[in-house]
Amino acid sequence: xxxxxxxxxxxxxxxxxxxxxxxxxxxxxxxxxxxxxxxxxxxxxxxxxxxxxxxxxxxxxxxxxxxxxxxxxxxxxxxxxxxxxxxxxxxxxxxxxxxxxxxxxxxxxxxxxxxxxxxxxxxxxxxxxxxxxxxxxxxx
Length: 140
Known about the structure:
By secondary structure, the chain is mainly alpha-helical.
């Protein structure tokens, strides 16, 4: 830190009150039904709190230019990483529909489970196939 005059404690008190007010706002908004806007609004409030904490509590406004740029660029790279991961998931081909499992030919009794070629359980002749939409397995 440089040899400049110390920062007023009133500044930290004001910033602390703003952060506390944002905390109360976030708490109050959590009880209001906002639909799909709830998450973006909560993220904006959290982002403002983060910037206030970083800028004042960590005293970035007194730091050198290189330190401030690092504090800006590092979160941007995290956001870039999250966006790349989200775009990867969003652009994947849809999951294929489940097809009926092979059945045992010639078994006249109740449905039975047998082992397939790779140790995967297969359904007996009268047991229905797995549902394609729900993705649940039949009971054992």
